[in-house]
């Protein structure tokens, strides 16, 4: 299956609202966001640490991370290109009672508005397949994360075999038709584990491993892995 890139930002308010409405009301997605937060926490986020969520969108992962780690004094920053997505993220955080724990920053991940080594951990979900130049963003993640900090860059996986495609087709049937096109767009624009490993190898990230699941892929470094 050939890779078909998707556009970078979800910039129109109507599209942002639709994304927010669908993801916000889908209990499987909300459960996945909570699991992603736990997976990040397991990689090692220190008490009082600072976490960056790259391509935070309407903030669901950032909110899940802040909810899971707020008692340990962890602060979360959500970065996104799209003011429309960030406006909805702020509303979602307010509704979750998390206002003081998350900062929303408009900005481009190609040139992040953060200092070197500012973050103890960097997270990203479902954004990688939008990036036209992932190596440049990996380099920015390498710059803003502490030398032994954790990162977890998670995305859908391009499905090359018929059985996960059949599974995805079944999932697609449960998704409203206007959103189904984005679901398949994400899968078609995502990377295979091999492609992703080749891209990361060209970047300044170190100590990484690529984790491949049935329908997902991630670039991971835990703070206890060798760097
Ligand atoms: C499919 S949404 C995922 C949102 C969120 N991470 C989630 O899991 O629900 C992808 C997001 O990545 C953002 N994005 C894409 N390219 C970006 C870039 N270069 N810099 C910052 N954000 C970017 C888009 O604006 C969009 O909000």
Task: Tell me what the structure shows.
With 227 residues, the protein is an alpha/beta fold. It has a single domain (13-221), classed as Vaccinia Virus protein VP39 (Rossmann fold). The protein is 44% helix and 20% strand. The chain has helices spanning 13-25, 27-44, 60-69, 83-95, 134-144, 162-173, 177-189, 193-201; strands spanning 50-54, 75-80, 102-106, 119-125, 145-156, 209-212, 216-221. It has a 7-stranded mixed beta sheet with strand order 3-2-1-4-5-7-6, with helices on both faces. Strand 2, helix 4 (83-95) and strand 3 (102-106) form a beta-alpha-beta unit. Bound molecules: S-adenosylmethionine (SAM). S-adenosylmethionine is lined by residues 8-10, 23, 55-57, 60-61, 79-82, 85, 108-110, 125-127, 130-131.
Key features?
227 residues; 20% strand; binds S-adenosylmethionine
Summarize the structure.
With about 230 residues, the protein is α/β, with parallel strands linked by helices. The protein has helices at about 15-25, 25-45, 60-70, 85-95, 135-145, 160-175, 175-190, 195-200, and strands at about 50-55, 75-80, 100-105, 120-125, 145-155, 210, 215-220.
SSE layout:
Elements: H1 13-25, H2 27-44, E1 50-54, H3 60-69, E2 75-80, H4 83-95, E3 102-106, E4 119-125, H5 134-144, E5 145-156, H6 162-173, H7 177-189, H8 193-201, E6 209-212, E7 216-221
Parallel strand pairs: 1-2, 1-4, 2-3, 4-5
Antiparallel strand pairs: 5-7, 6-7
Helix pairs in contact: 2-3
S-adenosylmethionine binds next to α3 and β2.
């Amino acid at each position: 299956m050939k890779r078909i890139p998707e556009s970078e930002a979800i910039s129109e308010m109507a599209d942002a609202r639709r994304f927010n409405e669908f993801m916000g009301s889908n209990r499987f997605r909300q459960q996945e966001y909570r699991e992603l937060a736990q997976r990040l926490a397991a990689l090692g986020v220190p008490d009082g640490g600072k976490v960056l969520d790259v391509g935070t969108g309407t903030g669901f992962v950032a909110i899940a991370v802040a909810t899971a780690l707020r008692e340990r004094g962890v602060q979360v920053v959500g970065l996104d290109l799209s003011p429309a997505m960030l406006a909805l993220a702020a509303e979602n955080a307010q509704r979750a009672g998390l206002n003081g724990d998350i900062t929303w920053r408009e900005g481009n991940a190609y040139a992040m508005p953060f200092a070197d080594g500012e973050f103890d951990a960097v997270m990203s979900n479902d954004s990688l397949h939008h990036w036209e130049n992932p190596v440049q963003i990996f380099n920015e993640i390498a710059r803003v994360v502490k030398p032994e900090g954790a990162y977890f860059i998670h995305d859908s996986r391009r499905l090359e075999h018929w059985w996960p495609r059949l599974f995805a087709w079944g999932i697609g049937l449960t998704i409203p038709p206007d959103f189904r096109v984005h679901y398949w767009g994400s899968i078609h624009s995502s990377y295979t584990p091999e492609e992703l490993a080749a891209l990361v190898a060209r970047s300044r990230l170190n100590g990484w491993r690529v984790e491949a699941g049935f329908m997902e892929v991630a670039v991971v470094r835990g703070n206890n892995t060798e760097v």
